[in-house]
Fold Delta-aminolevulinic acid dehydratase.
Amino acid sequence: MMLNRPRRNRQNEVIRSMVRETSLSPDNFIAPLFVIDGKNQNIPIKSMPGQSRLSIDELVKEVKELYSLGVKCVALFPAIDEKLKTPDAREAYNRDGLNFRSIRAVKEAVPGMLVMGDIALDPYSSDGHDGLVDPKTGEIMNDPTLEVLAKQALCEAEAGADIIGPSDMMDGRVGYIRMALDESSHQNKLIMSYTAKYASSFYGPFRDALDSAPKKGDKKTYQMDPANSTEALREAELDIAEGADILMVKPGLPYLDIIYRLKEMSTLPIAAYNISGEYAMLKAAAQNGWLDNDKAILETLTCFRRAGADIVLTYFAKEAARLLNK
Ligand code: PBG
């Protein structure tokens, strides 16, 4: 006799699915997409097999496909022409700029698709930093950057973005942007804050995709130290106090403990960003036949949910939605 046999609850798929603690659905996904200027452009990103930089006409096609698969939110990342990059990153708030044209095009083509706009200066800055750089000292200037971020946020809101996603990690930006939005009658625009964004080596493929790597130095004076976790709670407390609607952790897979800690401490929904380097690792292994692509994708995304993420930003969104719709 043995009273406790955990295997009894695993004996067939009906029982397993009855006791399953975590669910995964395309409702949980946000698909990040890269946009470039031009027409008919679909340029594969070498370090992210299956992902491309898309011109707006191609972006619209992709968005329609995602929507039909049940993915109802996209995050847009524009790759800006080098010639438009300046030290003051003024292209970040050029109303006719690629970012805002993309947002408008998506909302026009598929009004039900939620659009998340990124807030940070790196794609527009000739220094490749998320904030403005002091030309004398090389320091990233916090408070002058807030002004620019708020302008960028207002342009995104006006273009029709539903969610504003500050990924810059400047201090005080959530509150500053919230105030700017509310003062311009954009009180219903959500802020999904990149609350705990770490200075990670796993952003490499993303920086390839946008040619946005810092020209000098690194991002360690604003992005968090991968060795810290209690500090993430401090960032979360501040973002909550400043009016964030959703808290995000980034990267994802090596930081599941941070997702868990934020979920435990906050009543706000938690998002996780399954970033470019994580995508590249899985794809490289799958292409070599070392991992089963489909199973590894679904397991990965389920684990984000188990750790406490309500939402997952993932380059696997389309593939995973297809698998879940089968
Ligand atoms: C920059 C930004 C980065 C990512 C999203 N926004 C890179 C960075 O901070 O250098 C990375 C996303 C990914 O790697 O998939 N504001």
